[in-house]
Amino acid sequence: MSNILDIIKGLNQAASNAYDGYDHMDEKIGLRREEGNPIVDSRVMDGFAVRFAADKMIVTYQSDIPLKELHPRGQFENDIERTFADITKFLKKEYKKITKSSVTLTEVAPADMMVQSTSRVRNWVQATKQYKIGTDSETVSLGRTSDEKMEDGIKKFLDLSSEKRPSNDKASKNPDTPKG
Fold it and tell me: Which residue from 3, 30, 55, 107 lies 20 to 30 Å from 132 (Cα-Cα)?
């Protein structure tokens, strides 16, 4: 059985191995910066990052895109989806190299894309896609939910309460009642 934290650590290490200039990279990730000649061609600014939420991995891809590549619309969306497929393929291979076990990443929904204009020629695209993390073996959750933790904290706080008055308290038990 594997712990979800161990899986997240492995995927995080696999994603960190994707930086531009990684020495031991014998395969392509599928990013646009890998195309062409780096000496002659202008460098393409693109990359990806991963973050985790419970049993989901969220991949964020950003790139600088020329305006002519945005039209026809369906082709651009397919290119982004293909890039996400290449990124997850790379992450799975790197995870297997690092941990000697496999991981499954099933997509939850299609990519969410936002395109912004930088100039009349260039645009900036930022896309995110969620994947459910699974393994070939059974995974173990990391403990209690936040509601359970909160209930425990409330119980501990209420247990601190007592009816005993402090030794320096000189006030009467009920200050509203007249002394008599």
Answer: 30
Burial class (CB in 10 A: 0-12, 13-18, 19+), 47: middle
Give tens-digit pLDDT for 31-66.
Answer: 655 665 655 555 567 788 889 987 889 999 898 887
Residue 32 corresponds to which tokens in the numbers above?
A: 């646009």
61, 9 Cβ separation under 8 angstroms: no
Please give the Cα distance from 46 to 124 (Å, whole number). 10
Cα distances (angstroms) measured from residue 108 to each of 58, 64, 111: 10, 26, 9
- The secondary structure element, H or E, covering residue 3 is strand 2-3
> Can you tell me the distance from the alpha carbon of 13 to that of 147, in angstroms, rounded to the nearest whole number?
31
> What is each CA distance from 156 to 148, 151, 153, 163, in whole angstroms?
12, 9, 5, 16
- H-run or E-run covering 7: helix 4-16
Most confident range (mean pLDDT) of 37-41, 113-117, 136-140 is 113-117
Q: How far apart are CA 24 and CA 177, in angstroms?
A: 83
Calpha distance 83→69 (Å, rounded):
15
